[in-house]
Amino acid sequence: MQLKLDLQFFAGEKTEKATPKKRLDERKKGKVAKSQDINTAVLLLFCFIGLFVFGGYILKHMTGFYQKSFTEFIHWNVTEVSVQQVFTSATIEAAKMLAPIMLIAIVAGVASNLMQIGFLFTAEPLKFDLKKIDPIQGAKRIFSIRALVELLKSLFKIVFIGTITFTVIWIFKDDMLMTAFTNAENALGFFGRVTGIMGIAAIIALLFLSVFDYSYQRYDFEKNMKMSKQDIKDEYKNVEGDPLIKSKIKEKQRQMATRRMMSEVPNADVVITNPTHYAVAIKYDETKASAPYILAKGTDKTALKIKEIAKANHVITVENIPLARGLHSAAEIGDVIPEEFFKAVAEVLAYVYRLEKKV
């Protein structure tokens, strides 16, 4: 009894790698190994590049809008129509300024996901599931080991990125103090450069951390995807079918094929036997084939049945041990006999035709 329980325990232990079918099923549900840190790092990198490339374009539209505001809009009377026109104009200008960055952000988001998991579209995660609003299940997720790991990761990222940005500020602290003695344009230019340096440093740090995060996500995904030996057996049964049912289906198919084969025996010209273990029924019809072909064949009980049907339908039976064995192993039902048997079969058929003429 104890041994049986131990075997059941080990059979249920998840020690096996996930099968391709399970991976495909989980992928359809949207469950894949993915690091959000890679998405964040790539998104920030592309957006910073976009700001450097389109910075002049954005500045031009921004200053143009300010100029129009303080030279044209400022003289308008405050009415419902004028306020609406100002807000409409501001919205259009903001859309023009942000459009390149938004487009770059969309491309970056798609690219980072394609880089990790390839193309995947599924609505499965959007389906309503009562388990998602189950407070007990929610509490389990909140206080799980994975949630604790994610919390520690987030705290580490905050400290790591904060340390890097503070270091950049500390390096340029003297220059920052000196901006009090420069004009506004130079001060803004300096803070823009420092912000750019902090951004690039933070992006590099995030890319560095994302490598480790992706490795962890892959490890955790593979761990959760593991299957027990019983799971693999159950999956095989679902895919291939229950072995018992499958064997019964095959047996039924064999019986149907045998019945079809037996129904062709009365049409044979001759049945060649060995005489007890093999039987091969042959037909020669030049309108269907250029050479004699096999209508039926079998061994033991099937051979005996073929001979019985042949006898009942007055089909001549010829005993030829080597020819019967050779034809049985060399050709399948419906096949033309191989060339090396032409002469022997022709002699048998000639003999049969002579007997039929005598009759």
TrEMBL record:
Domain of life from the UniProt record: Bacteria
Membrane-spanning residues: 38-59, 97-122, 154-172, 192-216
Subcellular location: Cell membrane
Primary site of residence: membrane
InterPro entries membership: FlhB (IPR006136), T3SS_substrate_exporter (IPR006135), T3SS_substrate_exporter_C (IPR029025)
Protein's membrane topology: Multi-pass membrane protein
Endpoints of the signal sequence: none
Pfam family, any one: Bac_export_2
Entry keyword set: Bacterial flagellum biogenesis, Bacterial flagellum protein export, Cell membrane, Cell projection, Cilium, Flagellum, Membrane, Protein transport, Transmembrane, Transmembrane helix, Transport
NCBIfam families for this protein: flhB
Free-text function comment from the UniProt entry: Required for formation of the rod structure in the basal body of the flagellar apparatus. Together with FliI and FliH, may constitute the export apparatus of flagellin.
Family to which this protein belongs: Belongs to the type III secretion exporter family.
Name of the molecule in the record: Flagellar biosynthetic protein FlhB
